Amino acid sequence: MIGLLGFAHGFGSMADTKLLRLHLVSEALIALACFPISIALLRIVRSRRGFRYNVALFCLAASILACGVTYGIEVLTQWRPVFWVSVAIEAAAATALIVVLVVLLRITPNILAVPHKLADSRFRELIEDAPDAILQVDERGTIVIANRTAERMFGYSRVELLGNNVDHLVPLPSRAAHAQRRASFLRTGVPIAMEKRVGDLYARRKDGTEFPAEIGLSPVKTEAGLFVTAVVRDVTERKRLEQELQQERDLRGQRVEVLARLAADLAHEIKNPLAIIHARASDLAELAAQALPLPALVVEQSCDSILKTTERAIRVIRGVQALAHEGSHDPMQPVDIHGLIDQAVELLQTRFATHGIALETVVPAGLPMVQCREVQIEQVLVNLLNNAFDAIDGDARSRPWVQVRVSIGPASDADGTADAVHGAAAVHGTAAVYIDVLDGGPGVSPEDRGHLMETFFTTKPKGAGMGIGLSVSLSIAQEHGGSLELLDSDGPTCFRLTLPELGRQAEGASA
Amino acid sequence: MRPDQASILVVDDELELLEIFSAWLGRSGCRIFTAPNGAEALKVLRTQKVDVLLSDIRMPVMDGVTLVRTLNQMETPPPKIIFVTGYGNISRREIFAMGVEALLEKPLSRPILLHTIDRCLMDCEDKWLTPSPEPAAQRATLEFEGLEQATASSAFTLGRGGCCVACQLPLKEAVSIDLSIRFAHEGLSLEAQGTVVWVDAEQKKAGIAFDFLQPQCRPWILARINSQNPRSFVPQC
Known about the structure:
Helices cover about 55% and strands about 15% of the residues of chain A. Chain A is of the alpha+beta class. Chain A starts with a helix and ends with a helix. Residues about 1-10, about 415-430, about 460-465 and about 505-510 of chain A have low confidence and may be disordered. By secondary structure, chain B is an alpha/beta fold. Chain B has 2 domains: about 5-120, Rossmann fold; about 140-230, predicted glycosyltransferase like domains (Thrombin, subunit H), CATH 2.40.10.220. Helix content of chain B is about 30%, strand content about 30%. Chain B is built from 8 helices and 11 strands. Chain B has helices spanning about 15-25, 40-45, 65-75, 90-95, 110-120, 125, 145-150, 220-230; strands at about 5-10, 30-35, 50-55, 80-85, 100-105, 140-145, 155-160, 160-165, 175-185, 190-200, 205-215. In chain B, strands 6-9-10-11-8-7 form a 6-stranded mixed β-sheet. The two termini of chain B are about 30 Å apart.
C-alpha cells in the first residue's frame, strides 16, 4: 500500500492513468465511509451516557474519523500537495488508535468474563417472555437490558428503551422522587422484594397512561459496574378484582344489615300477635277446665281476637317474605298500588312509631292498576321509606313526619320542575302513577344530589347504609318503564317513583 | 307484700295485651294501672304509688329502657321492674344492670307472670329461703383470694339480686346453677342456687341471679347488699 501510495504521489500524473483513477475512487470511498461510521459511534456514546467504555468508543470514533480525513487528504494531495497537513492527521489517527488499543487490551478480560450462559439463547428466551417486565439499569439509571414483556407493558420498542433513562417509565409527578430513591437504593444496595409494597406504585406507558405496578429491585455487581435489576408486574387486573371483591363484600354487608333490621322488626311484629293468641287460648282453656257452661260471648270474642291477630301476623310474614324475595324474575302483573303501599307501611309502622315519626299515606280513590313486579316495587318503596327514616332519625333539625302520597299525572314531566337525576324521560305516553315519598328531614345537599343514584353512594354514617340502595331502586324503576327522581323544590325532600299506567308499559319499557 | 295488696303498672303499646295482662292481674286482686308508652307511665308514676312496673321495651314515644333510666335518676325509690318483651336492642346484661329484676319473653303465660310478680314483691330475706327441689343443671365452684380483692379486680361483684363472677367454665344462659365461692382471705363462702341470666363468653364472665342462699352465708351477703345498696339487680362487672 505504501509503495502504491509512493507511486501515486511521486509519479501519479505520468503513470498508468487507469490505475490512478481506481486508486483515487477507492480512497475517496474509504474516506466517505469513515465519516458515517464515526458519527454512528459518537451517537452511541451520546445516547449511552455513563456507559463504562464510552472513552474507548469515543477514541475509536475519533481514530476512524481521522483515518477518513487522512484518505480524503490523500485524494486532495493529487492536486494540492498539503503533505504536512496529511502527516499531522495521520499522526492523530495513529494516536487515537493506540488509545483504543490500550483500552481494548484492558477490557478484554472483562468482556471474556461475561458469563457464557448470557449468550445462551434458551436463557435469553426465558427472560424475554417472563410474565413480568424485566429491566436492568446502570448506576445512572440508563436501561441496558429490557425483555419483550417490558416492550409490551410500557409500549416502547426495545430500541427506545435501551439507552433511555428508566425515570421515563415513572409517572411525571413522582419522577424527581424516583431519581432520589434510585440513588439511595444504590447506596444501601438491599434488595426489595416485590411483595414488600411501599404504598401504591404506578408506572407510565409511552402513551402517557399509568398503571398500578409492583416492583422488585435487586442490585447486580459485575465487572462492568453496579447494575440494578428491576422486575415490574402490572397489577391492574388484580387491583380491579380486589376492588370488585370489596364492593361485593360491602354489598353483602349491607344486605346483612337489612336482614338484621328486618329480623328485629319481625320479632317484634310477630311476638306481640303470638302473645295475644297465646293469652286468649290459655284463658279459654282455663275457662273450659272449670267445667262450667262456657259463656258464649267470651268464647266468640276470644276466637274473633285469635283469628284477627293470626291474620295480622300472616300479613307481616308475607311482607317480610316479599322483601327477602329477589323478585327480578317475577312476571309483571296488574297490581293495586293502594294495597302494595299499605303492606309496606304496615311493615315499617312500628319502627317509625317507636322513634316518634309519623308515617301517613295519602292515596286517592279510583287509582288505575299498575303493571309491575309487586315485590320489586315494594322493595323500592321500603327502601325510600327507610331512607326517609334515617334522614329524620339522624338529624336533630328534622320534623318527624313521613308521607307517602300517590297521584296521577302526565307521564312525561311537562312542567319541568323535576330534577331528573336519571331517566325521567324514560316514561312516554300520557298517564303515569306518581308515588311520592316526602319527609321532614334536613334535605339532600346540592353537592350530594348528583351522586345520589350511584352505586355505593351514601350520606349515612358507616354501618348505617341501607339495603338495595337508590341505584338499584332506580334500575328497578327503569325496568318498569318508569323513573325515580329527587324532585327539586324548596319544600320537603320528595323522592318520586313514577310508574306508567297499565297499558302504557310496553311502550315505556322498550324505550 | 302479698300480691293482692300490690299496685301494678302495666305498660305496653299493644293495647289488646294491655287489656289481657290487666285482666289476669285484676283477677289476683292487684290494683292495676295501664299506660301505652313510657311517657304516659311516668305520668302515672308521678301521682300513684306503684309497687311493680311491668313494661314492654319497644314502644313509641318513650321506650322501656328510657323509662327505667329516667326512673333511676329520680329521687324517689323506683318500683320493682319486670320487662316483658318480644325484642329489644339492648343486651340482657344491661337490662339487669339497670336494676330490672326479671325479663319475660312474649308470649308468656299467666302463671309465670304471677309467679314472677310474687317473687318481686318478696323481700330478699324471704326470697332466698327456700331451696329448689330440682337439682341445678350446672355447677360452678370458684375460689378467690379475697372478697375485696375480687371486687376490686371485677372478678366478683354483688348486686341487689345476684352477682357477676369471672368464671373460666363455659356456663349456659337462662339455666339454673349451683354456685359455690370461697373467699380465702376473709374466710367467707357463698353457697347459692341461682339462674345464669347472661354470659359473656369472651370475657369469661357471667351474671347470676340468686334463687336460694344457704343459711350460713345469708347474713354477710345481706349485710353487704344493705351497706352498699347497689342499683343493679345483677351487676355488669
